[in-house]
Design brief:
By secondary structure, the protein is an alpha/beta fold. It has two domains: 2-221, no CATH class; 230-247 and 268-635, Alkaline Phosphatase, subunit A (3-Layer(aba) Sandwich), CATH 3.40.720.10. It has 24 helices and 19 strands. A hairpin with a 4-residue loop joins strand 17 (580-583) and strand 18. Helix 3 packs antiparallel against helix 9. Bound molecules: (2R)-2,3-dihydroxypropyl phosphate and manganese (II) ion.
């Protein structure tokens, strides 16, 4: 027995020393050390085990080729891998220290980003970063020395296809496990890539880069249909015609030259407005603001797979969201002429404000294309109070105001809140003056009402400060909800809150509204506008108030203050007019007032028009047409 143990120990020792003596192992360990260093420097180490597994997996896959190469070439190959990886990790580190974001292909291709980081490298460097080149310099010397003293570091064994195969396969398996784990926790993340940092946290930096590059190449290789002359002309014509009803009308220029602040509120749905629970108003501050503003009470969100980013996109760009994923992520390289860029051309300072990771929804990339001078993000704030997903709305709005005080008028500030984000289970000890939701306590709907009540308070404080500092009377302040808060899973609770047994298809559809209000300088002109509208109508409506000429702007929406007829098209083909609501899922249309089903001949025209809107918006996005259409509109200017 004793002898057996000793033999086994000897065997293990021998194997271990073979491994230890292998330069291959040294390089693998070095790459891992660099990655771990990177992770700790950037705080990316959260899903540590999965990340280590997948990272090791990717190294195994690449290293496996070394086993089928000649010794000398194998060594060169492994050294090259180390050098390339070191360069990648080092660049990511510099980039992260600068942008608080990971490198992605579109980001690399965007002018300015690389040089910005490059010119600041010296300030970004820490002494420990020497680690990145230490092995590249020292190891070849060490190796030569070892060879001299007859210690063989090249212990790769004989060239072996089997070894290569088993290394490669086990590497792939490790990556597979990590990927499955990621997809199980966030099912759509690999298609939409909405949170790059989260992807890297789970599958490791190297796999993240591989996935990002793959996505980029795949998207660019996508078979592009040719855009026919005919279709192109049709679209040009559509927008030329559309311009003709763009007369300067009601409230034109009511906010001319004033600061514009837009607050896009996370998951603010309309049903909470002017509603009480247990005798208490859910959103007292918004209710008060609404009573002093132009209130659009028939306003729907038009978002799709891009969530918050679609809400920003529909409002500022006035195009419909994309069929799949988010335009922010899929089309950052298109030309846009949205609200911020238009206002920038008029001399406004433009600033986007959102206290979260700058790379989320690809904002760090697309904001430049949309014409924002600055992105006031998580990088710019002090995270002194965390509520749910990140900085609390109260702290964030306070910091945003402090930043805006440094801006010269006029400015355009686009602010996005965060605290009322799904699943609304925030730390309630941070709520002062908690809403009593009675028996809804600890349900999803109850949590939502409490969260939105908190956000309402934050907005109340924000308005109060604007008022006290005298800024409110020089500001056009718009507030709207980004998208739904309560999904069909919680329909029953919602029905109960609304005092109904259940909600039919039409009622549910009519609940997909968000409040939208525009508060004019000096609070003039309070009124309710009930023309049906949605996200894409924001741009023309706001710019009319701001007195900005939109005659060469390309937008799907309409100015709700100057349109008798509204037309709201949803991504799935549903639509709403002044009288009709068509629901594509069931292919049924209703008379909104009576709730009666109407026959298909009665809405043929509108249905075709809705399809046309979607088709035109998609074609514009696919073929990057905004510039061409704009040029065409410019030509027609008198
Ligand atoms: C995060 C926030 C959330 O930055 O905008 O986006 P959502 O999950 O609502 O689409
Ligand atoms: Mn959102």
């Amino acid at each position: 027995m004793h002898r057996f143990v000793r033999a086994a120990a000897d065997f293990l020792k021998q194997k271990a020393s073979a491994v230890m003596h292998s330069f291959l192992t040294i390089y693998v360990v070095m790459i891992l050390i660099k990655l771990v260093y990177f992770n700790y420097e950037t705080g990316l180490h959260k899903a540590a085990w999965m990340q280590l597994l997948t990272t090791l997996g990717s190294i195994f896959v690449l290293i496996s080729f070394a086993f089928i190469l000649e010794h000398k070439n194998a060594r060169r190959y492994v050294m090259a891998i180390d050098a390339v990886f070191s360069f990648i990790i080092f660049s990511d580190l510099m980039f992260y220290r600068y942008f608080n974001d990971l490198i992605s292909v579109p980001m690399l291709l965007q002018a300015g980003n690389v040089t910005d980081v490059g010119s600041s490298v010296l300030e970004l460097l820490h002494p420990l970063d020497l680690l990145f080149i230490a092995d590249i310099i020292i190891l070849p010397f060490l190796q030569r020395y070892m060879e001299k003293v007859k210690l063989n570091l090249n212990n790769l064994g004989r060239r072996s296809g089997t070894k290569a195969f088993s290394f490669g396969m086990s590497g792939l398996l490790m990556i597979y496990i990590g990927m499955s784990h990621l997809v199980a926790s966030q099912p759509t993340i690999l298609q939409t890539f909405y949170d790059r940092v989260y992807v890297a946290q789970n599958i490791g930096l190297l796999n993240y880069h591989a996935a990002d590059a793959y996505r980029y190449v795949a998207q660019n290789l996508e078979e592009e249909d040719e855009l026919s002359e005919h279709k192109n002309a049709e679209i040009m014509d559509f927008f030329s015609q559309k311009k003709k009803d763009n007369e300067k009308g009601l409230l034109w220029g009511a906010g001319q030259g004033k600061n514009i602040i837009v607050v896009q509120v996370e998951a603010l749905q309309q049903f909470v407005i002017n509603r009480k629970i247990n005798g208490q108003e859910i959103t007292p501050n918004l209710n008060k603001l609404i009573s002093e503003s132009i209130y659009f009470d028939n306003y729907y969100y038009q978002t799709a797979g891009g969530g918050t980013s679609d809400a920003e996109f529909t409002a500022n760009v006035s195009m419909l969201p994309m069929k799949e994923g988010s335009a922010y992520i899929r089309k950052p390289a298109n030309y846009y002429y949205p609200i911020p860029k238009r206002l920038k051309d008029e001399g406004y300072e433009t600033i986007a404000m959102h206290g979260y990771k700058p790379g989320f929804w690809n904002r760090s990339v697309i904001y430049k294309a949309l014409g924002y001078d600055e992105f006031f993000s998580k990088n710019s704030i002090t995270e002194d109070e965390i509520l749910g997903m990140g900085i609390s709305d109260k702290s964030f709005l306070k910091q945003a105001l402090a930043r805006l005080e440094q801006s010269k008028a006029p400015y355009y500030a686009f602010i996005i809140t965060l605290s009322s984000h799904f699943p609304y289970d925030n730390d309630k000890s941070l709520y002062d003056n908690r809403l009593d939701v009675g028996k809804l306590k600890d349900t999803l709907l109850g949590d939502y009402l409490e969260a939105i009540h908190y956000t309402d308070q934050a907005i109340g404080m924000f308005i109060e400060e604007l008022e006290e500092s005298g800024q409110l009377k020089n500001t056009v302040l718009a507030v709207y909800g980004d998208h739904h808060a309560i999904s069909k899973d919680n329909m029953k609770e919602l029905a109960e809150l609304l005092g109904k047994e259940e909600l039919n298809e039409l009622e549910w559809q009519q609940l997909q509204k968000v409040p939208m209000l525009i508060h004019l300088p000096k609070g003039a002109e309070a009124q309710v506008v009930s023309t049906p509208g949605g996200g894409v109508d924001f741009m023309p409506t706001l710019l009319n108030i701001a007195g900005i000429d939109t005659s060469d702007m390309v937008y799907i929406g309409r100015d709700l203050l100057n349109s008798e007829e509204g037309f709201v098209v949803f991504r799935n083909g549903s639509f709403v007019t002044n009288d009709i609501a068509y629901i594509s899922n069931s292919n049924t249309a209703y008379d909104i007032k009576t709730g009666e089903v109407i026959s298909s001949e009665q809405y043929e025209v509108e249905k075709a028009l809705a399809e046309k809107y979607l088709d035109y918006s998609d074609t514009i996005m696919e073929f990057d047409l905004i510039d061409d259409i704009k040029e065409n509109l410019d030509k027609q200017k008198p």
